[in-house]
């Protein structure tokens, strides 16, 4: 990931349902720690949080909650230096996706769409729960690295 970009994570807790089957549930209100230090960030009602890293480096992100054990309790994020040196270089136009309101990844979806990494399936629909194909992943990675297209309109991810 590049400096200035945001990453979205979801805190989940392990537990059991009424029939004692193991389940994973979103943890709202979990405190987010970066490199062991508490931040002002907390997870929303869906257990989601968006974290922004302005400087290159490796960060350990974890969450704690009085509600129970969070699974997994930690992740490591490696941040590369920003290409243009301006971490706040974001376009003003926000896509008007009508199907992401209240979705746990809403802020991350808006951000990646603003940057041009993700386009949705129409001007008003993103389809946040659709399965992602290999071609989609390759296209996003290509766009993140600055790719803008190919000659003749051919796919950039191979033939």
What does this structure look like?
By secondary structure, the protein is of the alpha+beta class. Helices cover 13% and strands 29% of the residues. It has 2 helices and 9 strands; from the N terminus they run βββββββββαα. The chain has helices spanning 106-115, 134-144; strands at 6-10, 12-16, 22-26, 31-34, 37-42, 48-52, 57-64, 70-71, 74-79. The chain has a 4-stranded antiparallel beta sheet, with no helix packed on it. Strands 3-2-8 form a 3-stranded antiparallel beta sheet, with no helix packed on it. A two-stranded antiparallel ribbon has the order 1-6. A hairpin with a 2-residue loop joins strand 4 (31-34) and strand 5. It is globular. It starts with 5 loop residues before the first strand and ends in a 15-residue tail after the last helix. Mean pLDDT is 75; it is low at 87-92.
